[in-house]
User: What shape does this take?
Amino acid sequence: MMKFLAAVVLIVAPLSAEVTVIKNATIMTESSKGTIKGSILVRDGKIAEVGENIMIPQGATVIDASGQWVIPGIIDCHSHIAVDGNMNETSVSVSSMVNIKDVINPEDVAIYRALAGGVTTVNVLHGSANSIGGQTIVIKTRWGKDAQGLIFEGATPGIKFALGENPKRAGNPQAGRGGAPVPLRYPATRMGVEDTIREAFNDAKQYKAEWDAYDAATKAGQHPIPPRKDLRLESLKEVLEGKRFVHAHCYRADEILMLIRIADDYGFKIKTFQHVLEGYKVANEIAAHGAGGSTFSDWWGYKMEAIDAIPYNAALMAKKGIVVSLNSDDAELMRRLNTEAAKAMKYGGVSREDALAMVTLNPAKQLAIDNRVGSIEPGKDADIVIYDKDPLSTMSKVQKVMIDGNKYFDRDNEVSGRPQKELEKEKLMQEQDQQQKKAAPARRPQ
Amino acid sequence: MQYVMKNAVLAVLVCCGCALGQPQPTSLAIRNARIVTVSGPVIAKGTVVLRDGLIDAVGDSVQPPAGAEIIDGEGLTVYPGLVDGLSTWGMPMAAAGRGGRGGTQPAAPAPPPARGPEDRPATTSWIKAADQIQMNDRRIEMARNAGFTTAVVFPTQGIFGGQGSVIDLAGAKPEDMVLVPSVGQYISMIPQRAGYPAALMGVIAYVRQIYLDADHYKLVKAAYDHDPRGMKRPEYDRALEGVIESKRILLPANREVEMDRMLRFAAELKQTAVLYGMHEGYRAGDLLKKSNATVLVSLKWPEKARDADPDEVDTFRTLETREKAPTAPMVLKQAGVKFAFYTDGVDASREIQRAVKKAIDSGLPREDAVRALTLSPAEIYGIADRLGSVEKGKIANLVVTRGEIFDDRTKVEMVFIDGVKHLPTPEPAGRGGASTENPGERQ
Assistant: This one.
């Protein structure tokens, strides 16, 4: 019974907090206030006040963060966590009919690990095996909620595009790498990648015209039979209508320019170039298009198309006026995006605040959710991370993480709860080993 | 084969009896037996009268009609015949592998990989289990030995496997066995090895597209039927015909996450859904109740694989699920969720008995275990008006045991199928539950 009660309390706890004050902290607000020493008042899941002196309302939960640092929840603009099944629909070169939203796995432990690394918002993308990949979704790391509970309400959904080696390799019969040979799939060259995207948008334009005609006829009081709804083209129609963001995986300058030309030809915008390792070479063009750049801090040379990457990419793109974020693309790296941001200070001399913005406010802008998250300002969601030390230092550890004003991670609870969990697991393992041993001899003679 | 012959003779006898008014007894009575009616209270000592394949009378003061064959039920218990809620008994084995059009014909060459939903990959939605029955399937006899009289069998190959049928587990010819030819569409979420869809999200997108296409198909067809002049005729699409014909869909869900996903998906598709699997049903009582879900619980409880790598450490969840999966029926019962059992590849009578007993030992009252294999599956498939309980007017499918059903030492004495008596046959020793396809296992 006690165990049952404890379980109930654990589940209910994140819902209960209504007014919380975090006091005596060093707060990197990532707003015009800069970095201050002071307090944050959280009410009903939103940041109500930020300042050096804040009245603590009666009954408020007070977290004393003396000597500690507070930053806005980290946002990862490129991740593949929390996905059930394969993150690539590899069979076709345009897989725009599939949707990550359909396969969110709220029990992926990578969510909790990311949360423990201060990540509160994640752009979950389809893989990069297709010229046009699947539909994408923005989630919050609300560990313990169901799939719907993770979804960032109101965030514009996206679609993944991919250029270069990945989509063409998926079409190459030698891509099996010693395993089963992969069936040949168009495209197998960069030219083919461009062609598949153009063909898809030719189809999408025609599809959109059919639906527009149908909508017009319906409005005029006629009752025509609607066109067939095609999920593959439906999402591209949304791109043409500006209702769905394009997040394009890319490396080389030439393919970046190629995609900008396609976008201009068909009248849509690229919201972010992802990885964009040669972005520094074509930063003016990217800035002119209005796209963001979401890059790695210092990964390069891991394949031919990454050979010209430099760690100054983020700083150089930012200097040209591009909104730049640093992403993980990896469940492990995701846990320490704070130090990824710090690398921008080393490579390119970015200021502390601007460096941290590359994993907070900037990805929020790239996902058009900066009205809700990305900085510590009144009116925004109370997505807050408390570090014991300077968050831009490798020595710092996340202490607490709050999302919508509710505490989802607490290092003290995590560490103190481990021995009990280990014990329970050990017990289950022993029981099941014994059961198996007991069952085994009875089966042998047959 | 011998069995089939015997059935044939019996059936012919019964038929002759009713058709020609011959003196052979057309009715049969089990006297002085304990009767678990399931639909009503247990009758401590009573009589069941079977006539022309139907239950003619049941009660504690019923008199056997004159000339009826009498079975002394002293020390015996009569239950409704057990029903497997999702089964492949009598279905042809999958030789063509997955992913094929017409995948049930073993000789069919593998189709080229699908390039999109328009190729209708892994879809045989038009197939009816009733048209596929293989009477020589040994598992039918094994099922009768375990007390089963009826199964809801499905073609389970591919994503849209086909339409399930309710069949009796005996008959002179396949047609005799069919109670209801089409009760729903079997859907799996298994990605294809080659071609579209290659990922879970692709499978979901494909299923969604099929239902969108089905809606559109109906619209176009209706318009054409209304006035074909000047209109291009809609192209016949058997995949959509099969889907439209299906009264309900079966969707796989072992994990709680999958239950949530599939319930939402069914609501989006506006389909009546039955979820099958339920390994984590022990966690999901509230979720399932809230969604008013109907579920089929696999009797193949999750176990550590015998050839598992000894160095591999299972996750806490895996360990917990193995421990608690058999409590799922109890949890569902307490939450008020409508559920039935299905054998899921557990075929040997002893194994089935053990599997059900495990649920009882984990807290499911025995009467609910019986219900989950009789009246509940009948209700789930909308055939409780003819099956699932010992009631006057229902089909005479019964199982008669010595001892409480599902107990270790209880013996199935006989089963009645359409009023015809079948005695258990000796089973080859050592034939475990390892068998065929396991619906819901390979996601």
Remarks:
- Chain B is about 30% helix and 20% strand.
- The CA atoms of residues 86 and 220 of chain B lie 34 Å apart.
- The first strand of chain B starts at residue 27 and ends at 35.
